[in-house]
């Protein structure tokens, strides 16, 4: 056997594998002056990657403001996608410095990560067709067709507690739900009102959908940081308070959710004990 | 064009054929009409939903092409890793030692009997639970792992079929000049069977490319199918248009691969310098399921 | 040790898998035969359609087809296949998608079977004055079917494995339940072993049994 050939082939395989996977290993906080922020990439109005490779939405505005207060120039912010199921792992591993991704504060998550904020109070709600007057209260959802994304707690909430006789379709993303809602095969899409408002505010949907305004739950959005990083957490709290005070917060809300005719809550008490007490 | 199945049509058969043609076209047209009006009625054909794919190159550069790139990376990695593994398994299945044969056979039969999605789900959860892999890359690893486990088993059978397809004279001649088993395999059988296997390997690439889409739908792997999500989030939930464009890209990509495999097979079958032995491109469908398929007599060539 | 199975209907999920497989198998056998007949028919348009169908469908990922049945056929075109609830609609849509996909492979298997029928058989039939439908239905297909039991068994096993893709539109079959259990329970290895075993039980005996049938059924020449 010609021994030269095997190492060459093996090296080629290894090189291919490395070349294919080595890219995109963005750094954490320790590589100079960059800051890595986890956001959603596919939620219009909240966190969205746009075709020109930029990012927009309320969470993105908050992230940019906070990063600015922490001393980073806009060009030093690296945005990374934080899918719902990956958020705790991303923080624990230090893949991102903090996460602004419609991240509701709850006890289970608080055992794994720390939260700055809350910076926004959202409620679980439903989105229905603008002309559909038959759904005016949560009980009206009984016997109707609901849609949400796979494995989301919102849909189970409605089905288990509010409207047990509602049917539930689950898809990988909200866009699929909206296709059904638009075409009349689905009666209501349910998740946080901020996310729904973001979709409804898109040019294509103006005037087509309305929010139910049911306030089915209270979701306090926090900024996730690594467990135990109290310094970063309090710095972010300070930045958030400043954002509310100099009305940048209000401007961001109006710019992102305004077109949907969505009445948002006043800013929640940031870092105030009130936000922490529910957890005990 | 005539076929052995029917006579050259006379005047009556021609009239009937025209009638059938008209009827069939009518059915097709009715189906197309139903789809088009249905879509139009629901506003799915509005130009604003399709325009981004034709007028906005950024849709391609930001979403579709990176998705396609990930699809191809995953498929290529899976093939490159599965090939040597499959070769080892395939050769081990022809070993003279019963325990080597048995072990390799068990592995091959096991992974061919289990859906690739189950393998991917397992790999994804295993990487999350037992390894320190970044969530960003975990879906790629899981998809590639699932594909490798499955395709190594399929390719093992392709390799075995390739070696068995060679004329017996090759190994007889090798033995006659005093080569040992290992030498026969390395210098005589493997090099020739690689050529014979090429069409089947290219054809298996199509299967791999199609299976990567499972990762996009079920594991959050950012491949071509998953690029529908950010696109439809940006352009007013144009899901129908996005899925259609993605489907067309898949068809074109796989059609190129399929045609390449067919041409390769044709060349090898006609080739003067090779033994003419070949594992057909469509044999992979058969080799992909558990059970004994290797060593059947080849199908006679198509007739029509 | 098997506490983690509490509260999960594993058998029910595999029963759904079996039902998906059986209905799709029947449907794709019928539609696949029709496609094969079109591909060898004297009418050029039908031949063209058959070829086009097989080439397009074989090159699309099944995942795309299944999602399309839900999003395109149901959500947009309003095809609910006579069902009223999402559970039933999704099941039927998945069967439809699996039929559309699998029949392309059935068609190709049958076509190769048609090629194994000796020329003399066909020529003798034509000499007797049989038309195309009679030649195909009385002489060619019966022999072709007997010679392709083996390849069709492979298509059936592949179909059994492919039913997992129905999870993409929320049909509660084995793969969807496995994903749910992995998310909620800690025993990853045991859970995976249970589902792997389930599929081994479904696919291996099918392969062995149909392998035996195929040897019995083969036309001796």
Automatic annotation (TrEMBL), chain A:
InterPro entries: Bact_solute-bind_prot3 (IPR051455), Solute-binding_3/MltF_N (IPR001638). One of its GO terms (biological process) is amino acid transport. Keywords: Signal, Transport. CDD domains: PBP2_GluB. Residues 1-22 form the signal peptide. Residues 271-280 have a biased composition (Low complexity). This is Glutamate ABC transporter substrate-binding protein. It comes from Streptomyces pacificus.
Automatic annotation (TrEMBL), chain B:
Belongs to the binding-protein-dependent transport system permease family. It is found in: Cell membrane. This is Amino acid ABC transporter permease. It comes from the Bacteria. It is a multi-pass membrane protein. GO terms for molecular function: transmembrane transporter activity. InterPro entries: AA_ABC_transptr_permease_3TM, ArtM/GltK/GlnP/TcyL/YhdX-like, MetI-like, MetI-like_sf. GO terms for biological process: amino acid transport. It comes from Streptomyces pacificus. Residues 68-261 form the ABC transmembrane type-1 domain. Keywords: Cell membrane, Membrane, Transmembrane, Transmembrane helix, Transport. The lineage of its organism: Bacteria, Bacillati, Actinomycetota, Actinomycetes, Kitasatosporales. The chain crosses the membrane at residues 18-36, 72-92, 113-130, 142-166, 187-209, 240-264. Pfam families: BPD_transp_1. GO terms for cellular component: ATP-binding cassette (ABC) transporter complex. Its main location: membrane.
From TrEMBL, chain C:
Keywords: Amino-acid transport, Cell membrane, Membrane, Transmembrane, Transmembrane helix, Transport. Residues 14-210 form the ABC transmembrane type-1 domain. Belongs to the binding-protein-dependent transport system permease family. HisMQ subfamily. InterPro entries: AA_ABC_transptr_permease_3TM, ArtM/GltK/GlnP/TcyL/YhdX-like, MetI-like, MetI-like_sf. GO terms for molecular function: transmembrane transporter activity. NCBIfam families: HEQRo_perm_3TM (TIGR01726). GO terms for biological process: amino acid transport. The keyword Hydrolase does not apply. This is Amino acid ABC transporter permease.
